[in-house]
Design goal:
Pfam families: UQ_con
Largest sheet: 4 strands, antiparallel
Number of strands: 6
Family: Belongs to the ubiquitin-conjugating enzyme family.
Active site: 120 (glycyl thioester intermediate)
Radius of gyration: 20 Å
Protein name: UBC core domain-containing protein
Oligomer: single chain
Helix content: 25-40%
Structural class: alpha+beta
Domain UBC core: 37-182
Amino acid sequence: FLKRSEAMIGLFKVKEKQREQAQNASRGGASVKKQSAGELRLHKDISELNLPSSCTISFPNGKDDLMNFEVSIKPDDGYYHNGTFVFTFQVSPVYPHEAPKVKCKTKVYHPNIDLEGNVCLNILREDWKPVLNINTVIYGLFHLFTEPNSEDPLNHEAAQVLRDNPKLFETNVRRAMTGGYVGQTFFPRCI
């Protein structure tokens, strides 16, 4: 209950600030863009983030563009230990009724991330619900690195190697992360 009260107070502060800006604008100040419901919800989600210490969020376009941001994940164990993987998030004005669009900027040898950066995570597709939030998505991405899923692959070759020969999979991941070829594909260093 206390968290919800704090969130409501935060939303009231946002509304109050919007009112002040609108009043200032009507007195000859600069015009103020009204925030969409998606922007308000995203502001709330970001203010309540509780990320693992190995995840960071940044706003390359500045704090005025909350709808586009990046999340860096640096797994602390598993196959991808010590790698740094950057994801871009594009959030729609109708968020949370539509899942954010998430792409991996880091080329990675992974069964659930293809070479174009598309991510196979069920909560970004058919299992998305408006009660989910940015924190849930980031934890889902983090989980892909601690436990890659060979049962729902985007990179079928990597998934097959993970299923059939986990030692070779580990070798391929290390080779890709340190900057090298896996088969015919070159992976830039991400360690």
